[in-house]
Amino acid sequence: EVQLVESGGDLVQGGGSLRLSCAASGFFFDDYAIGWFRRAPGKEREGVSLISSNDDSTCYTDSVKGRFTISSDNAKNTVYLQMNNLKPEDTAVYYCAVQVLWGTDPDCRGDYDYWGQGTQVTVSS
């Protein structure tokens, strides 16, 4: 059973930083990407960032480029999202998610196959 457990969400002032963590277990895909999507109230899901399990290639949605950095620790089966210079529009529930790949690159705008329960990030102005 695939399990994705997020942590690190919090209330932070604009301009501040947070680091989200996701502990992953229970899957054995040869080729996949793991990362984050978010959902804000009244808005559609937005893919934030993904990192490939094979070659560490990444994708980021345009609004977070230069501010967010994704990384992974394969030994710990954990993926991180370092979020700097947070803005009120970053407020959302952030979900750790897995995208099964078929020889393709991670696609932040693509479909996600598994996701966790989510962690709330709130950025005050």
Q: What would you say this structure looks like, in words?
A:
This protein has 125 residues and is an all-beta fold. Helix content is 0%, strand content 50%. The protein contains no helices and 11 strands. Strands 2, 4, 5, 6, 9, 10 and 11 form a 7-stranded mixed sheet that branches. The radius of gyration is 14 Å and the shape is globular.
Fraction of residues in helices? under 10%
Distance between the termini: 40 Å
Give a short account of the largest sheet: 7 strands, mixed
Give the CA-based shape. Answer: globular
What fraction of residues sit in β-strands? over 45%
Number of strands: 11
Poorly predicted runs = none
Structural class: mainly beta
Order of helices and strands: EEEEEEEEEEE
Round the Cα radius of gyration to an integer and report it.
14 Å
Overall pLDDT metric: 95
Topology of helices and strands:
Blueprint: E1 3-7, E2 11-13, E3 18-25, E4 32-39, E5 46-52, E6 58-60, E7 68-73, E8 78-83, E9 92-100, E10 114-115, E11 119-124
Parallel strand pairs: 2-11
Antiparallel strand pairs: 1-3, 3-8, 4-5, 4-9, 5-6, 7-8, 9-10, 9-11
